[in-house]
Amino acid sequence: MNKQLIALSLNDTSFPPVSGALDEPDGLLAVGGDLSPERLISAYQQAIFPWFSEGDPILWWSPSERAIINPTQVHISKSMAKFIRQTSLTITVNYAFSEVVNACALPRKTQAETWISPAIKAAYQELHQLGVAHSIEIWNDQDLVGGLYGVNIGGVFCGESMFHQQTNASKLAFIALCRHFAKHQGQLVDCQMVTTHLQSLGVTGNSRENFVKQLKQHAKKNINNSCWNKQKISL
């Protein structure tokens, strides 16, 4: 099959089939369009997400391998279980969405730049205001020391990024997300790309084809309405 990179129109929020994503670079599907809520929601419903550097055209991806986890199967190591029992850190939902995104956007030690540009921040803030994007926060007293954010599509939570400024804070945020999402009938957490950090928490790789099937299966399921209310939670 001869695969070609598709240029998106500003006047049409549709995407080409993900089966047409390039093999190299793996998963690159389309370029252009915009970051409107309609287009972003449509993308997540079809196993597509944006990822590009500031100043570059918008790039849309659907990699051949997808990192996923059933939230009921999140792995908690013995050392992490001990940390959870003893920690004084607190966990909240949707207390500080923009602050979490800003913290995720800070360059990492191993990265010279961030892909979370001002345009990405504004787009996901709009999704948050529409009740589609959500955050988990980890606090040390009044200090935000960890968290994550992502997009909720029915019974699927599509994670976008996480950060930590204190040991175990991002792991705590991820475990809290899984436990909280499962409690409210969430079915699947999409982590996009497999990493060692995510694998230690029980995340596994799945083929794009299988992920698309799971997404179709769960995307129209309703979770408990109270899931994304602003709240404190505990493990």
From TrEMBL:
HAMAP family: Leu_Phe_trans
Gene3D superfamilies linked to this entry: Leucyl/phenylalanyl-tRNA-protein transferase, C-terminal domain, Leucyl/phenylalanyl-tRNA-protein transferase, N-terminal domain
Enzyme Commission number(s): 2.3.2.6
Name of the protein this chain belongs to: Leucyl/phenylalanyl-tRNA--protein transferase
Subcellular location: Cytoplasm
Location (main, coarse): cytoplasm
Keyword Cytoplasm part of the UniProt annotation: yes
Function in brief: Functions in the N-end rule pathway of protein degradation where it conjugates Leu, Phe and, less efficiently, Met from aminoacyl-tRNAs to the N-termini of proteins containing an N-terminal arginine or lysine.
Catalytically driven reaction(s): N-terminal L-arginyl-[protein] + L-leucyl-tRNA(Leu) = N-terminal L-leucyl-L-arginyl-[protein] + tRNA(Leu) + H(+); N-terminal L-lysyl-[protein] + L-leucyl-tRNA(Leu) = N-terminal L-leucyl-L-lysyl-[protein] + tRNA(Leu) + H(+); L-phenylalanyl-tRNA(Phe) + an N-terminal L-alpha-aminoacyl-[protein] = an N-terminal L-phenylalanyl-L-alpha-aminoacyl-[protein] + tRNA(Phe)
Annotated GO MF terms: leucyl-tRNA--protein transferase activity
Keywords: Acyltransferase, Cytoplasm, Transferase
